[in-house]
Design a protein that fits this description.
Helix content: 10-25%
GO molecular function: aspartic-type endopeptidase activity
CATH architecture of the largest domain: Beta Barrel
InterPro entries: Aspartic_peptidase_A1, Aspartic_peptidase_AS, CND41-like, PEPTIDASE_A1, Peptidase_aspartic_dom_sf, TAXi_C, TAXi_N
Bound molecules: 2-acetamido-2-deoxy-beta-D-glucopyranose
CATH class of the largest domain: Mainly Beta
Strand order of the largest sheet: 8-9-16-10-15-14
Family: Belongs to the peptidase A1 family.
Pfam families: TAXi_C, TAXi_N
Largest sheet: 6 strands, mixed, barrel
Number of helices: 7
Protein name: Peptidase A1 domain-containing protein
Distance between the termini: 34 Å
Structural class: mainly beta
């Protein structure tokens, strides 16, 4: 029988210096003392893996509701919504490989944008990526209404254009829901190629719109670094978010699409530029959205809230806000000013703090730090999380342990500090360790180093779990607070 470990938070930030990690083996009970204060306890509780799978077969459609002036969309991790997983180890390895492809593609896109500037036209070949390469890792999904039907989309803060696979389809990957059929929607209208909307494609996707065969339509093309892409006509139709109707919403009707999009009908772009859902719904939601990303292991639902109604958040710590940094060369992305990192209450030292932009992304899984910062973090983590048997590195993760003999461990708390107002992201204990093996014999610090100092740090979704993250594009701020994610 296969078992896996579920993660339970027992208590957070326990201010004690005598708490112990207890090892239970046949031979002995060993207790090791730690001298550090700022830790969180992670309980490794055995659960029947097969049983867990039957509960989570399929969760299309995600629910939604309206409250006050906001819309609440249920958010699930895609992994939670699909059938049984055959091999945990293979699956998580594949996830990390895909994650690395996304990060490489993001980095090369950023490099191209920095070197060329936006005014210069970029050829298709030079744009390796607009959003997450293998969309397999962009793993949070929501259901919205489009052209009178429900449709399930991947949520991506790293891109702008929303698109769905469309009939008639030249080449479509397999999806669970029927294809979107424009001829069945009376409100569907193609976007004309000689229009501002069509011109906005250049900043939203890196590739200008072109006139279609039928010179009245605007053709879009979004290309991904790994060979994945979507191509089709830009169109308008009615978008329904919860109960809010957005008329003439601009989206891509994808006629030729390929890539590992995991059976989902398309993608919802929550980036910062003109064609994103955030920009197109500005009149209703004033450029504010937030999410709480649930962890896969606890199977919970999270929520994507559109609109600025703080009373809908269920945070149990106060919000701390920081300014979003605008980078005109990269209008899509949300950048923050990383000013410091502490682990177990110990502040890391790095000359780059306060000088470097860091990207916050819903589609990257594992947080990436510049090599020097990562090495400092790793050294301090190993000093504090000592006495545990080491395990081999796993893919991009190089700080691993065999924790199969432990019932619970005490993990130093990771805090990331941003901006002059010192906003703090306190990483939830479920976002600290990555389980390469279901039996906990290979469990790794869930942070990776970038390959060179010139690359841009990324805050991945693994470290954003159980946190309400509020994006306010109107005030140009971003806020964090602890929340236990749930829809209700
Ligand atoms: C979309 O899904 C909601 C919630 O399940 C349901 O109430 C509604 O009838 C569906 N709409 C369509 C057009 O199928
Ligand atoms: C071409 O455009 C005309 C009107 O501009 C429209 O009636 C027709 O359906 C379009 N054809 C296609 C294939 O989109
Ligand atoms: C992990 O630790 C357990 C208990 O100490 C041991 O039995 C097992 O062989 C170790 N596994 C690996 C892969 O090292
Ligand atoms: C980032 O924060 C540092 C330290 O507070 C400050 O000196 C710097 O000007 C900030 N950078 C930006 C781009 O806001």
């Amino acid at each position: 029988m296969i078992f896996f470990f579920t993660l339970l938070i027992l208590h957070a930030a326990q201010p004690t210096t005598t708490a112990a990690a207890t090892i239970t083996t046949n031979a002995a009970t060993i207790t090791s003392l730690h001298g550090y204060g700022d830790t969180q306890v992670l309980a490794l509780k055995k659960l029947n893996w097969a049983q867990q799978q039957t509960v989570t077969a399929n969760c299309f459609i995600q629910r939604s509701r309206s409250e006050k002036n906001a819309i609440i969309l249920e958010l699930h991790n895609r992994d939670y919504c699909y059938g049984p997983r055959s091999d945990w180890n293979k699956k998580v390895l594949k996830n990390l490989l895909s994650d690395q492809i996304r990060v490489d593609s993001l980095q090369s896109r950023i490099k191209i944008l920095i070197s060329k500037g936006l005014n210069q036209e970029l050829s298709n070949a030079q744009i390796p990526l607009v959003s997450g390469a293998k969309l397999q890792t962009l793993n949070y999904i929501v259901t919205v209404g489009l052209g009178g039907r429900n449709i399930t989309l991947i949520v991506d803060t790293g891109s702008d254009l929303t698109w769905v696979q469309c009939e008639p389809c030249g080449a479509c990957y397999n999806q669970q829901e029927p294809l979107f059929n424009p001829s069945k929607s009376p409100s569907y209208k193609p976007v004309l190629c000689k229009s501002t909307t069509c011109e906005n494609l250049a900043s939203a996707t890196g590739t200008s719109g072109v006139c279609g065969f039928n010179s009245s339509t605007c053709n879009y093309y979004v290309s991904y670094g790994d060979g994945s892409y979507t191509r089709g006509d830009l169109a308008n139709d009615n978008l329904v978010l919860g109960t809010t109707l957005v008329q003439d919403f601009v989206f891509g009707c994808g006629r030729v699409n390929d890539g590992l999009f995991g059976g989902v009908s398309g993608l919802m772009g929550l980036g910062r530029s003109a064609l994103s859902v955030v920009s197109q719904t500005y009149g209703v939601f004033e450029g504010v959205f937030s999410y709480c990303l649930p962890s896969v292991t606890n199977g919970g639902s999270g929520s994507l809230i559109l609109g600025d109604d703080t009373s809908l958040y269920k945070n149990f710590t106060p919000f701390s806000y920081t300014n979003l940094i605008s980078n005109t060369m990269m209008p899509t992305f949300y950048f923050l000013n990383l000013t410091g990192i502490s682990i177990g209450g110990v502040s890391l030292q790095d000359s780059g703090f306060g000088k470097n932009e860091m990207l916050i992304d819903s589609g990257t899984v594992i947080t990436r730090l510049k090599p020097a910062v990562y090495n400092a973090l790793k050294t301090e983590f190993l000093k504090q999380f000592s006495g545990y048997p080491k395990a081999p590195a796993f893919s991009i993760l190089d700080t691993c342990f065999n924790l199969s003999a432990y019932e619970q461990v005490e993990i130093p708390t990771l805090k990331m500090h941003f901006g002059m107002d010192d906003a703090t992201l306190t990483v939830d204990v479920t976002g600290m360790l990555y389980f390469a093996k279901a039996d906990a014999s290979q469990v790794c610090l869930a942070i990776a180093g970038l390959s060179d100092e010139e690359e841009i740090g990324i805050i991945g979704n693994y470290q954003q779990k159980n946190t309400r993250v509020v994006y306010n594009t109107k005030a140009s701020t971003l806020g964090f607070a602890k929340e236990t994610c749930s829809l209700d």
